[in-house]
Amino acid sequence: MTTVSGWAPAAAGQEGQEDLRALFGRSTALFAALTGPEHVVETANAAFLALAGDGARTGSPLGHLLPDLDPGVVAALDEAYRTGEPSTGRDVRVVLDAREASFDVTFEPRRDAAGTVTGIWVIGVETTHVRHAQLLMAEQRALLEQIARQAPLADVLDGMARSIEQLAPQEVLVSVLLADADGRHLRHGAAPSLPGFYNEAIDGIATGEGVGSCGTAAHRREPVVVTDIATDPFWDDFRDLAVRAGVAACWSTPILARDGALLGTFAMYHRTPRVPQEADLALARVFAGTAALAIERHRSEQAQRAAEAAAGAARDALARAVLAERQLRAEAERRATTAAQLADQMREAAVAQSATPHPEHCQLGGAQGCDEPAEVKIADSWGDSAWGCPVHVEEAILNVRSVFIASEELGGLSAYVHR
């Protein structure tokens, strides 16, 4: 049998209040009048008799009705009967309707007209829900502290899953799946009590109608309850896997961002077919909200880190560009200096050529001079010319744009370049 949606009130504030009521419920009050040193149950309300199970009746000693009663409780009753002094017990654990419960109890001596103690009044108030509330608040606070200090998402989700498994009144196996950025697939997030092979098999499942409980819940953006995997069509493709994993029911709640975007799914598995109680659904809603907070915080941190990385890359690229620009500028300045020096040398060479038309040595060696033979004549657009060795002539041509080969023997610039 599959139940889809139908448990989410429209108003968020109202929903939160109803979830708290469902989780913490109403306290159960116990009352009994015991008589004599054996604490025979003279009268009692239905809740008290329920402690002893079906068919319990008055007229029997308390020890017969509740043979497993905490010895400390019996000792407190004996003490109150013997001394006539009232006493109280805190968080006394008993079994009520096949579940463990805790009570705060008061033992008040009963007296006859002469003031003699004849029995004990027992008045108790169930504190199970209060204790659960304290545990829930403690777990929620711990999870929120983890989120605030930016603990790894995997650690937060794993801790949350384990908390729910401990808080749930019956055995439950919790799984959290995370949605891909496109919302089309679900990835493993946390499932500390499910078999590894099962987690690997469903890692990456598609979101879609009829894709198990989680794929369908993610697709519909609403809770999906499968109470019996063996007969539900949503599990046709995963039934054998569920049998191997030992799960027979799965209730899945979508985890949604504040803007309605899909963040993942929160699932509660059971080993036997089971219909959820309102407290189960409220617990799922409460922790789905906590998971949403953790996942949104994680995604925000990822986006921030990505933005910071992009900004850092941009800064590095700018720094490289600035360095390259500086190097190009330095090279341009070096070339300009070299060109100016060569121009001066050519002017000096032109003056020298007036006396010696073809010098013996290269005239382009600068201050250090050059002893190589003067083989090639070059000139510039200003009419200055000089003779130089092939190495210095090539340097002049590369650094001074207006320089050209003036040697007729070499056939001009083209012949010099392709020689």
UniProtKB/TrEMBL annotation:
InterPro entries membership: GAF, GAF-like_dom_sf, PAS-like_dom_sf, PAS_4
Species of provenance: Dactylosporangium aurantiacum
Renumbered residue ranges of the record's region Disordered: 347-368
A Pfam family matched in the record: PAS_4
Superkingdom: Bacteria
Ranges in a coiled coil: none
Protein name: GAF domain-containing protein
Signal peptide: none
Record domain GAF: where: 152-305
